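Cross-posted from the bioinformatics board.
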Amino acid sequence: MSLSAYVPIIALFALAAAFALFSVGVSQIVGPKRYNRAKLEAYECGIEPSPQPVGGGRFPIKFYLTAMLFIIFDIEIIFLYPWAVTFDALGLFGFVEMILFITTVFIAYAYVWRRGGLEWD
Amino acid sequence: MTAYLAQDPRLEDFGHDPWWLILIKIVVAFAFGMGLTVLGVWFERRVVARMAVRPGPNQVGPFGLLQTLIDGVKGMLKEDVLPRTADKVVFFFAPTVSAIMALTALSVIPFGPLVSIFGHRTALQVTDVPVAVLIVLACSSLGIYGIVLGGWASGSTYPLLGGLRSTAQMISYEVAMGLSIVAVFMTAGTMSTSGIVASQAGGSKFASIGGFDLYVPGWYGLLLIPSFLIFLVSAFGETNRAPFDLPEAESELVAGYMTEYSSIKFLLYMLSEYVAMVSMSSIMVTLFLGGWRAPWPITLWSGANSGWWPLLWFLGKVVLLLFVFVWVRATLPRLRYDQFMRLGWKVLLPLNLAWIVLLAGVKVFQGSELTSRNRWLIVAGVVVAALLVALLWPSRKAQPTPSLEEQVAARPAGSFPLPPMDLVVPPSPRARRAVAERQPANVGGTETSNDSDETRKEV
């Protein structure tokens, strides 16, 4: 098992990238260009677009919270994968260790739930 | 079974292909993704139309098969609008990120067993690595960048909100999806896709009727059915498909992150959604539905799992799952966003964790390294733990609703004045006049108010 098995993944990535960039590039050439000032405004169902500050506007803090929760649980999953793959070899010892680990994460989860971190209103 | 297992590729079989074979394989995998996408759009439109008793696209080519291609050409010939407020560079590259990542995920899907191509023995799979399933997950995570960057770079309100929503949705359901695969890894003991397909090969014989052996398939979709169902639900969330297509909820956000996009960039977003659907179906077939292996009645024929035939079984299973995607879209209404997030975080996640712990417990319990005394100790421990959790579970006390007077008294000083709480609104002059005019009709009876029975008779 060597790293050469990874080469086709990069090759497929390159093929997909070539396709995507090619099609975006071609449409720049073959598409028409008719200037109209109203067309270049941001679309907001016909009303005057609300002004956007430079670098994007403000948005609810909920999205940051969701991202942070995602990181916590994603890391938990990353720890679970190697354990799951070697589950048969680790046996009872691995099981007890993983129960302890899942319990600690579950306490954090219960805390977040109780504090309303999972509510969307 | 050993005759079939000789067809099974192993991890050592990968990484030795000559360059021309790699080229053929990636072009075929690319064509598989694109072809199924083009056909899939047509398929979806036709099936949804049939379910709504409409004909659907049927003009371009036989049965309207070329409709998608023509739509693509038309989209390409449209003007590519670059909004004034957009971040030019990011706006240009964001759709390509989504499309590239959706296509790259196809690189580790096993399409079939070892075959001979121009005298070269190789597996019908672009490549396989020890962390193949992680690569699929990574690709679907990186695809989120295309969406959030596209929404942000548009410099407009709806796309920004749509992009954020979509991102929160996809990362939430990625947690559920990632957890549901743990059970598969635990059972298969490997993360390589070909290894997972091989581990689903053996079915257990449960009956033999008149010389026919009936097998329970070793598919993880049946053995680990909670994992399969959770994966299926999160696949809908991950690909932004109905009933979870909240980023493009037309009634709220116009078209979500795609609002400002036009021409081929819009098409690339649509393409990446459909390619993601194809690759999600493929990975679901691989992980849960036995991969390229033939389903039960066909396995009675001994040649079913060798040569090029498995391509057909694989394609059949993928098309079946694509039909499920379309079917669900035509059947279920869209969820509200808070309901959707609640399902992901409060239902799927704890269910997943409980299922993993249960499965691991059962597996360890069945293992041979335990004496019977220890087994009973474990059972007792689990019971005690369950009782403790049930006892100490924090219960939310229902607050008694305070009476009106208490609520009024609890208001801080300087609050706005309240109208009198026992206010009775007098009837309007018009209503009083109407009642007065109706009065003579009942006057004939002597006691109009109490004796309603008699009144009715006389009237």
